[in-house]
Amino acid sequence: MGSDGRMGSDGRSDSDDPVEFRDTVRRGYDHLDEAYVDQFDGHAPLLGDLLASLSPGDAVLNAGCGPAYRATPALADRTEVLGLDLSRTQLGLATARNPGVPFVQGDLTALPLASESVAALVEYHAVIHVPSEEHRRVYDEFARVLRSGGHALVTLGTGEWHGRNPDWLEAGAEMRWNIADPATSRDHLEDAGFSVVEETTAEDAEGGSWTYLLVCRD
Question: Would you report the helix, strand and coil content of the chain in percent, each value rounded to 5?
C-alpha cells in the first residue's frame, strides 16, 4: 500500500511508542489543514444503511471525524451527531463546515462519553492511525459507548501494513499508519461483542482498497 509513495514506506516504523505515534498523527493533521480535504472525495460507503437503522434524534458519534466533510452533514440532517477527533485544526474546519454540530477533541482509546450513550457510531479511516497494540482497546471503547443493538460503521484495510510518510500529500506533514491484518480486526470486533451485518470493499480517490463493515453490538 505504501510502495506507490502516496502513503509512505513499507514496513514497521522506526518507533512504535504509542505516545510518539499519537503525537505524530495529531501534529500531521494539524499541519495539513485544508490540504487533507482537497485530496479526498468524501465517499461514505454503507452510510445510508447505517442511517436506515436510526430514528430521528438518535445520538451518533462520528469517531475520528477529521474535517467532517464525509459523514457528518448526512448524519446531522437526521440525528444528534457528535464529532470527535485528535486534531484541533481539523476540528476547527469541521466546526466551520457544520454550524451547530458539537465537536470535541479526544482519543479513540478513551472516548469521553458515558457507557451506552449513543445509538450508533461511525469511523472512517481513523483506527488505522492508532498503534496496532491499541486497536482492541478502541473496539472495546466503541462497544462500551454503544447501546445494546446499536450499529457501528468501521473501516478495515485489505491487508496488514505499517508505515510512515515524512511528507504526506506533499504538504510537509509527517504521517503514520498501523493497518491491521483484516482477520485480526474482525477477531477484535467479535471479541468486543460485535457481529457483522453488512460489508463492502471499495477503492478511495488515492487508489487504496478498503473494507467497510456495518456491525451490530450484541
Answer: 30, 30, 35
158-184 pLDDT, tens digit per residue, is: 999 999 999 999 999 999 999 999 999
Beta-carbon contacts of residue 164 (< 8 Å; ≥ 6 apart): 8, 9, 13, 14, 24, 174, 175, 176, 177
Buried b (16+ CB within 10 A) or exposed e, 112-133: ebeeeebbbbbbbbbbbbbbbe
For 84, the grid coordinates are 470527535
Dump pLDDT digits (tens) for 11-46.
444 457 999 999 999 999 999 999 988 777 778 999
3-state secondary structure string across 102-166: CEEECECCECCCCCCCEEEEECCCCHHHCCHHHHHHHHHHHHHHEEEEEEEEEEEECCCEEEEEE
pLDDT at 208: 84
Q: N- to C-terminal Cα distance for the chain?
A: 33
Segment 83-105 mean pLDDT: 97
Residue 57 in grid coordinates: 434524534
Computed from CA positions of residues 164, 168, 172, 173, in that sequence, does the dihedral angle turn out positive or negative?
negative
Maximum C-alpha span of the chain: 47
For residue 65, name the pLDDT band (cuts at 50, 70, 90).
very high
CB atoms within 10 A of CB 22: 19
Residues paired with residue 178 on neighbouring β-strands, in sequence order = 162
Q: Is the pTM of this model over 0.85?
A: yes
What is the CB neighbour count within 10 angstroms for residue 73?
15
